[in-house]
Predict the structure.
Amino acid sequence: MAVTFHADRIDLAHVCWRAGARPELRSFESYRRQGDDAEALRRLRGARRLGRTRCATLLPASEYQVLQVEAPNVPADELKAALRWRIKDMLDMRLEAATVESVVIPSASTGGRLPQVFAVAAANDVVRARARPFVVAGLPLEVVDIPELAQRNVAALLEDENRGLAMLVFDEDGGLLTLTYRGELCAYRRIDLRAGQIAQVDPERRDPVVERIALELQRSLDSFDRQFNFISVSRVSIAEVAGAPWLIPALAAASYVPVETLDLGRAVDLSTVAELRDAPRQAAAVQCIGAALRPGGDAA
């Protein structure tokens, strides 16, 4: 069960993995956020039986850093300490008060480059504050993750074999573009443009918005091609923005890589959650569902 907090609501996504089949989304629900989060979770624990599931949640983008650095050439049991030392002068927080984890970036076996990792850092106080409502409510929180990896989890189920996938999702926090390969996050870019802003664009002002997003997408794909020349990106999957059906066709016309509308139903069985068969509704759910899809072992 993933539980994600937004300015006005709390989202819950319950995913079950099944051998030889797509993961099943058992439920996706949103509740109005008001008052104390711990009390809200306590009520939901009883109403939704949250105490019977393993829980994950996400940090908001403003509360952590992701740094791309060379992987320290040390034994595995010394990696975390060596990585902390490597990034200490790059952090916006005191190293001794930070939690640091790493995510390995795919590399070509003969590329000649030193292995790279994403170092994910968050202040201990921030992590504790995110976990506190779960502790108070008596819920088994196992993972505090980040949106980039949650979106990676969805993309991993949509990739073509041995091809890269670009995925772009706009929500109330802005745009997030991820590039993945064989289920791993290779690169990402944030776009400072919220879904609500896109939906409210007047028809005569759409072209500059499309040009801005297309430029960000093109720069990311070009940079990815230079850095990962052993990976071919098969397509760009974009979540439809509610109220802006014109966006994806316009971006498709401007892109040299095939563009498609994100269909979560190809990654996850949505048969029990009819509302998410609607493409514009999916954008707000991608990261919560992605958090519930998290594989073990590599997150913040």
Observations:
- The longest strand covers residues 24-32.
- DSSP finds nine helices and 13 strands in the chain.
- The mean pLDDT is 93.
- Residues 61-127 form a domain with the Nucleotidyltransferase; domain 5 fold (CATH 3.30.420.380).
